[in-house]
């Protein structure tokens, strides 16, 4: 039985090294499921797999898109489903690794098709957000799609902006395009989420941000500063550095803000994952053993 092994979990928990160990044991490729690591030019701030790590195990969807390319979970599902038959020709397994839950869910469960957002609509929504803040877009979403307004995380600008974009582009409420139907896949799925005690995870995050700064995050952010309005750069690490470049905060404050916002993001990831009763949770050092046991049980069932 062909099997997709999914290794997910909050940012900074150790997914990359765990996936490398599992992929080497299973003699298979790794499919990246991080929505920012797919873009070129952001290896430090996104903690993308290094060249050495990619030499150890072949990776897919790492640094494959330009920063100004539009990409979505819906397109990711299409691309992964086209890739998997090629990987199945080489073996029975593939490992998917990443913490972008919408990407993982798209492959596991399918995602409802949504219209491509035109550059004009996207820029109009972004400009309104930058000039007027989130409140006016929330008001628009409440009027256009009251059902989705009740469900959306209203403190998450990315979710709100995306919903407003779709409503404007499609001319119908976003919720009407969401069927909730789970796709049937012609392969088995094993899902593992890595976890650590909160204090340990937060300390790992803090150390990783310090390491990113030492590796040249400031220089990397400066190299893309002129593209700051792009959605691909609307993410933790770059937003804070851009604020520093704009004189809105000193560098040491930006560094601490990156740590704090990354910790907040990790908590949101954990909350999202906790709703998935198909996940098996384990510590990073137990990942390989946990997956081997689940694969054995899957084979015997």
Q: Which characteristics define this entry?
A:
301 residues, alpha/beta, Rossmann fold, Histone, subunit A, 2 domains, 13 helices, 6 strands, 9% strand, globular
Please describe what this structure looks like:
There is one protein chain. The protein is built from 13 helices and six strands. The chain has two domains: about 5-110 and about 180-300, 3-Layer(aba) Sandwich (Rossmann fold); about 120-175, Histone, subunit A, CATH 1.10.20. With about 300 residues, it is an alpha/beta fold. The termini are close together. Helix 5 crosses helix 8. Helix 2 (about 50-55) links the parallel strand 2 and strand 3. The radius of gyration is 20 Å and the shape is globular. Helices cover about 55% and strands about 10% of the residues. Strands 3-2-4-1-5-6 form a six-stranded parallel β-sheet, with helices on both faces. The mean pLDDT is about 95.
């Amino acid at each position: 039985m062909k099997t997709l092994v999914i290794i997910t979990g909050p940012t900074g928990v150790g997914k990359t090294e765990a996936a490398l160990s599992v992929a080497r044991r299973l003699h298979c490729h790794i499919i990246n499921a991080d929505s920012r690591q797919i873009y070129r030019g952001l290896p430090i701030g996104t903690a993308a797999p290094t060249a050495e790590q990619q030499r150890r195990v072949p990776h897919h969807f790492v640094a494959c898109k330009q920063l100004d390319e539009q990409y979505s979970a819906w397109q990711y599902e299409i691309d992964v489903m086209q890739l998997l038959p090629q990987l199945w020709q080489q073996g029975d397994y593939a490992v998917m690794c990443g913490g972008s839950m919408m990407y993982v869910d798209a492959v596991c469960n399918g995602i409802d098709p949504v219209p491509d957002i035109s550059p004009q609509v996207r820029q109009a929504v972004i400009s309104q957000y930058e000039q007027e803040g989130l409140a006016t877009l929330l008001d628009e979403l409440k009027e256009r799609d009251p059902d989705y307004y009740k469900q959306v995380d209203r403190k998450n600008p990315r979710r709100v902006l995306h919903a407003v974009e779709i409503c404007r582009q499609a001319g119908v409420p976003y919720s009407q395009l969401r069927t909730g139907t789970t796709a049937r896949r012609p392969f088995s799925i094993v899902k593992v989420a890595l976890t650590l005690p909160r204090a340990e995870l937060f300390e790992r995050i803090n150390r990783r941000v310090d390491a990113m700064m030492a590796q040249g995050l400031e220089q990397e952010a400066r190299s893309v500063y002129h593209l700051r309005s792009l959605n691909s750069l609307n993410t933790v690490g770059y937003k804070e550095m851009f604020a520093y470049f704009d004189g809105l905060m000193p560098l040491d404050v930006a560094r601490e803000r990156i740590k704090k916002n990354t910790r907040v993001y990790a908590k949101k990831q954990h909350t999202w994952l906790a709703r998935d009763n198909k996940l098996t949770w384990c510590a990073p050092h137990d990942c390989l053993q946990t997956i081997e046991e689940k694969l054995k049980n899957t084979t015997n069932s």
